[in-house]
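During the reporting period the student researcher (J.K.) took over the structure-prediction task from the postdoctoral fellow and processed the backlog of single-chain submissions. One of the processed entries is reproduced below for the supervisory committee.
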Amino acid sequence: MVSLGEVIQKRFVKTKNMKDLIKALTILLKYGNPSYPTHCEHDELSIHGIDPEKISKEDVKQLKDLGFEIDIEGVYDEENEYEAEENRIYSYKYGSC
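J.K. obtained the following structure tokens:
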């Protein structure tokens, strides 16, 4: 029988942990402090009130390492093979809503 602790541990290993989420939000805080910065729907945590185009390349890399995607309208994403239709910051790594 698997303990609740083991189930929780497996869940966190599969996803990112809270320290990573806090680190990502701290990086984003450099670019603004919106009143209602997050929205979660259909397993996607999105960040609002921060312009992705203003985020430095170094911070974009760090955010990607922490599980976030940064889309800039009209820019082709070679890694994911698509052209973004809108500016957005989002992640599928931090749980379900």
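The committee noted the following: The chain is about 35% helix and 20% strand.
J.K. will present the remaining backlog at the next meeting.
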